From TrEMBL:
SMART domains: EAL. It comes from Sutcliffiella rhizosphaerae. This is EAL domain-containing protein. It comes from the Bacteria. Signal peptide: none annotated. PANTHER family: CYCLIC DI-GMP PHOSPHODIESTERASE PDEF (PTHR33121), SIGNALING PROTEIN (PTHR33121:SF76). Residues 192-435 form the EAL domain. Coiled coil: none annotated.
Amino acid sequence: MGRSWNRIKRNVKKNGSHLVKFMLPSKYLRYYPPVYIVRNPIEERVSHTLKKGFQIAVVSFYFPGLEGIIKRLGNRKYISCREVVKAQLRKVIQDTFTDEQVVCLHEQYSDGISLLIKVDANDYRQTELNDKLIEVKNRIEAPTYKHLDDEHLTIQFGYVFLDSSHYSLPECMLKAHLQAMAMAEKQSKLHYQHLLFQMNHIISTKSITLLAQPIMDVSRGGIKAWELLTRGPKESVMENPLQLFSVAKQTGKLFLLELVILEKAFQLIYQCKMKEAVFINFTPTTLNEVELIEKVLFLLKKYPAIIPKNIAFEVTEQDSTDGLRNFERNIQALRELGFQIAVDDTGAGYASLHTISRIMPDIIKIDRSVIQDIDKSQVKEKMLQGLLLIASETGSLVVAEGIERQEEEQILFKHKVDMAQGYFYAKPKLLQPIS
């Protein structure tokens, strides 16, 4: 026994950690040996936001003339003028965006400032983010906004969407920041030209995928129509539609991209022998293009089996329709060719109602913000009734978007809504060609 005890003591002396581990309760063993983790609050907030199902827009602000101002004013008096400018920008951002929208504001990678904005992908409208960023720009550049001995300060911005599916979160944040800075500066031959090359490649090779989500007949059941939804090249950052359309817009390639989408839609309709109506999203920017009708006529000639009356051009609320000279004329020309016109996101804001009054659409799509939990809200049900009244006055059919529960569908049935779509029925999917 004495010999055994001496052997145990020698073992403990040689490797005392075994004794410590032996004495620890089992619930603490996963912390042994101790691991020291350096917390990164920004990454934690970003990770938390992504896990809740939101997406994040990374915005970079760039001051092209700031270095020149510093040189003219001299470093002695204005040694911290860069900090003064950044403080002013922070103040304007805080006045423009809500605390709920701002994930964080930091200057981790450069002299510029990066802003991380929380975005609900289902309710996202590019015009909202653009308008707010333009408001920030206008306030910073306003003559009445005094700073730096009345030197005129200019500011540029660019933005992309975070995509952590292919990189670690720190790598993804750095990559997104560099891309956003390239958009803001547009002098960066490396990053901006790379994004431009990517977009040109997508357009030239037509490397997009169209998913189809069914639109159901509420009263009779069954599929009444399909909405086609765009995805970029698979397993790339451009697969995310928010990223794809944001980069296309900022590189001036939005019209060309949407023409590719239209042609791919014609191909899908032909290959799948689709008899139901098909909804295809278009931005007001594209619907305003002078060459639009010429391009549509070319595609109709190329795909003679396509029946225009079965296709609805769905006007998205990505941009305002105000000031677009050719918008209504092109809408009328599309109608004369036999296409239907739909207005998206109705009820989400003033813009869609304004568009309805201008173009009197054939179809009105009610935004999911009105439909979500409508069975629990008398106010939302009254809003639905009001929108149905507008549709009746304009002679429009109604599609309710974002149905996720049977109780929501029952309210639509009660009020005789024509059509509905949402995850309650089916998620977007690939359609297989019929041989």
